[in-house]
Amino acid sequence: MTNSKSPTEKFNEIENLVKDTFTNDQKRAILYSLLLIAKSDGEYHQNERLILDVTAQFLNYNLNDIKFLQYPSLGVETMYQELNTLNSKQKDWYILSTYGMINADFQYKQVEDNFANHFFEKMGISEEYINKLVQYYQ
Predict the structure, then answer these.
(1) What is the pTM of this model?
(2) Which helix (H) or strand (E) holds 101?
(3) How many CB atoms sit inside 10 A of residue 31's CB?
(4) Contact 35, 97 (CB under 8 A)
């Protein structure tokens, strides 16, 4: 039996499952990690800013919030701890959102992929799981 849904329809399904389920701490960790990925190649493209803005809107989070602006001072370990509190569906959404950020500037950059893979590793997410998930959503 094949799944006849488009990638967009599948992604919308997972968005609907996780919408409004994140804590503010999780939102900050997600957004900060996406920002780190976007800036990891030394550039911060307009499309990457747009992806971050759209993600913040989806999460109903203001990027100008003082707690987000101060988030870097907490260190990446705090970010890892919060990312590890995501449930399985939230992690799936996060993985897909991360790949959206990596591809936002329409140029594959190994350094961005390395950052994302490091975050996934810290979250206990295997490369095999990621490959299956991405394949399903293509």
Answers:
(1) 0.89
(2) helix 88-102
(3) 22
(4) no
Nearest to 19 by CA among 48, 68, 55: 55
User: Per-residue pLDDT tens for 24-71?
Assistant: 999 999 999 999 999 998 889 899 999 999 999 999 999 999 999 999
- DSSP-assigned letter for residue 73: G
Count Cβ neighbours within 10 Å for each residue of 55-72 and write b for 16 or more, e otherwise: bbebbebebeeeebeebe
Which of 121, 117, 99 has its CA nearest to residue 108? 99
Q: Are 95 and 125 in contact (CB under 8 A)?
A: yes
| Measured distance CA(54)–CA(120) in Å, rounded | 22
Query: Token pair for residue 17?
Result: 């499952």
